């Protein structure tokens, strides 16, 4: 069956399909048809306790530069050598 996004949480009337969650309750999966940023904002408004989980997902360890890595985004190394 078709369901629609709640206008309280999103700007547009996105359509979705009912899905059964792992806890046995049904939910409207309209977020899968939304742009990623808007989908996350919608979920944050509906379930504020998920906000911490999304922050962790958005900034994984891979996105932080290694302190010991002197390369720039093009993998060019800026090293200085002292010659005596």
Strand tally, please? 3
Helix content: 10-25%
Order of helices and strands: EEEHH
- Strand ordering within the main sheet: 1-2-3
Approximate shape? elongated
From the N-terminal CA to the C-terminal CA, the straight-line distance is 77 Å
Residue-averaged pLDDT, rounded? 70
Rg calculated over all Cα atoms: 21 Å
Strand content: 5-15%
Q: Count the DSSP helices.
A: 2
Structural class: alpha+beta
Give start-end ranges of low-pLDDT stretches.
Answer: none
Q: Into how many domains do the coordinates divide?
A: 1
Biased composition (Basic and acidic residues): 39-53
Biased composition (Acidic residues): 54-78
Region (Disordered): 39-84
Characterization of the model:
With 84 residues, the protein is α+β, with helices and mostly antiparallel strands. It has one domain (2-60). The chain is 23% helix and 14% strand. It contains 2 helices and 3 strands. The chain has helices spanning 36-46, 51-58, and strands at residues 2-4, 15-20, 26-28. A 3-stranded antiparallel beta sheet has the order 1-2-3, with no helix packed on it. The longest helix is centred in the middle third of the chain and has 11 residues, at 36-46. The N and C termini lie far apart (77 Å). The model has no long low-confidence stretch (mean pLDDT 70).
In a few lines, what is going on in this structure?
The chain is an alpha+beta fold and 84 residues long. The protein is built from two helices and three strands.
Summarize this structure as a short list of keywords or feature phrases.
single chain; three-stranded antiparallel β-sheet; alpha+beta; 84 residues
